[in-house]
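Exercise 3.2. Students should predict the tertiary structure of the chain below and write it as structure tokens, then compare their answer with the key that follows.

Predict this chain's 3D structure.
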Amino acid sequence: MDVAAFGFDLPDELIAQDPPETRGDSRLMVVPRHSGAVAHTQFARLAEHLRPGDLLVLNNTRVFPARLLGKRLPGGGSVECLLLQKLPTPNSATPNLGVGTSGVGSVVWEALVHPGQRLREGTRIILERDGKELFGEVLARRFFGRRSVRLWTEDRSDVDAAIERIGHIPLPPYIKRDDRPSDRERYQTVYAREPGSIAAPTAGLHFTPELIDELSARGIEHVDVTLHVGYGTFKPIRVEQIEEHVVDAERYTVDADAAAALTQARAEKRRIIAVGTTTVRVLESLPIDEGRIGPAAGETELFIRPGHEFRVVNGLITNFHLPQSSLLVLVAAFAGRERILEAYREAVAQRYRFYSYGDAMLIL
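Answer key:
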């Protein structure tokens, strides 16, 4: 299919730059998967559209402050570093770091750096915030402009703790403002547990502890899986035909308890409702052996597009996505391209808020 078939017109003012004042005070569009009119409600009334026995599947990944700011050494030119994933640390210590350490306790990351042209192999940097410092060295160029960067602290203290102190929350590129202290809590689900994402599973941002308790009281179960969201979630489709697009691999884990709950729900023909496209990718990547889903861990490169046969997911809670994006293609695969584009046109007409801090859609 032509990627242009997944375009739509979106006024810039509908792209949410901030979360709602109170978590959960967002709108919800309810879209019947196959036929029928859409309904407009509030996310806080989600329980009214579910039924006892439904199994919600949540992605419990946690966003870490992956955006680091600093300067080059020497010279002082500004540097920005977006950490993507940890890499194996070379056995040899870094020679002549010049900061009173032999490299013990250093960690190597794959990162996007700016300005990339000036950050060649061997470039030293200092990353800092509020008087806290982290040192770095560019070790090698990697694919698509990425770099291997070794990080360490002057006093050999824990590098991960230093990243947590000095890092900024990596807000998506369509949020045109600097991050604020409040984003550390609001760009995070209330059930986030496992650090490792550079982007939030945003469909989950609407949930509050009170809503989760209400759902449980009504017999609507929930279970956690983990998929660490990588930079690929923002990767545009640069080819004309969507079949040629490649989705970046992302790490996931489904433990024995979650696998058992999924297996039981399928056996009892209860609805399994994925909270977010990241959760869909996990569930549809799982092997099924004679109806049984077992615990699993690994990476998924699954690109869900029209024609995909959904084996696990019966319903989906999701935000409104970018035109011509792999996330929009996934949602269209679940409910049909025309139906989803019609719902998006309705969302624009009704002035819904779009993207990460925007409103939500429930597809059943």
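Discussion points: The first strand starts at residue 27 and ends at 31. The CA atoms of residues 24 and 208 lie 6 Å apart.
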